[in-house]
Amino acid sequence: MRIFKEGQARGAGAVSGKDLELINALSRKELAEGEVFTFSLILCDNEVDRDFERFDVSALEELAGLFAGRTGISDHDWSSARQVARIYRTELVREPDRLTAAGEEYVCLKAWAYMLRTAENETLIAEIEGGIKKETSVGVSMRRSVCSICGEESGSCGHVKGQEYGGKVCHAVLRGAADAYEWSFVAVPAQRNAGVTKAFCGEGGLGGFVGSEAGSGFAGEFAQLKALAEIGRGYLGRLRDEVKRLCLICQRDMYGAVSAAAESMGDAELEELRSALEKRVSEKLPLKTQLPGLGEVTDFDGDEYSI
Q1: SS3 assignment, position 41
Q2: Distance, CA of 164 to CA of 156 (rounded, Å)
Q3: Domain ranges of the chain
Q4: For residue range 287-297, what is the model confidence (pLDDT) as tens digits?
């Protein structure tokens, strides 16, 4: 699963001897302090973002190692001509006094990058120092995206990101960093979701960027999957309602607990619970036949089949 997330860059000031040592480990020639410009950037963090997703801390730790040495480009244009900087150091920064929307200690992945002080880079350096070029976006590949409510794979359990279940807002937790492709300078976002794009590209998947736009090559498949997802959500909703109805019939005193639990259950658990409740209902309220019992004889008055 390929993910793009935005961050920020800022000028870092003077180059320390340790920084220069790390930079020269990546360069082919020995660079002097006056030849490089360095800056720091926040690549990503464990906060729930505007798409109701977050990296878990272990994923940030994995990404810290993967981003060391990664190149910085512009607008996610994977062209050597667009390479402008390179990360030479990363670090996890923890803020114990700051909690995320998920109630965790805030942790971010910070990086330091360098670029050459050349005539071609003068404008970009001035824009970074002036706060004009500060939005960045990272391109990473994650192995898993799990639902924060039930722990199942996000999108397969029926819980909808952004909706509240039992007082908790559903979001996807990104786990297992597979790769860090690059980080990029992007335009200042004009809209809330600008600069954040995603694509699923696993084997057997869509194989490219997914979009609902009419011009997208996967618009038809995207619409079909969206329709199927709506059907699945509807099914789970009816299944939860049926579980609650059966609970009211046979175990009214447990209705509150069962109702809350049902909101975080997947289809298999709900089916199992429904089956158990149906059995309880049949024991409590057995069906009674209205037909005569075996061996009983009723009088035939001759009018049963009259027209």
Answers
A1: strand
A2: 17
A3: 2-206, 222-284
A4: 766 665 555 55
